[in-house]
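Revision sheet: structure tokens.
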Amino acid sequence: MANEGAPPLTADEAIRRMLLTRVDDAFRLAAFILGDAVAAEDLVQEAALLAWDRRRSLRDARAADGWFTQILVNLCRDELRRRARRPRLVALDPAVGHGTATTPAPASDLAPAIARLTADEQTLLALRFGRQLTIPEIAGQLDIPEGTVKSRLHATLQHLRAAVDAERRAEERVR
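Predicted:
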């Protein structure tokens, strides 16, 4: 009964509480999108700071969760795009060319195939399969129509299948 006379939460307090309760979920989402726990920690912290700085732009405190997810997803997309522009270092296997076979990665390892997808496709997979959001939830989080989510998810899964096939062909050529 102590809350009956208490004033309602301020917008700042609502944002602060949302950020504190979402940190673990936000980390899992960022780690799934980026495939890198250290980078995910950095981006969650950056997203929280950015959300706090932009808290006045939130029109409805009830939409804070989706609003914060959009900030985090956009930062992850930016990071994936930055990574795509960087030159990639390829680890050389000293056994190659010396007649010894290398052990291929397990077929269930989708990371190389996922890395071939665009940042937006990786983000969509992270929301659908990493956070296990439904189509309507993804549409709400990204502020796009459900039909758009469905068509993009369908195309993304086709691209993922093609990327898995390309990875398999590349492995077969190495053998």
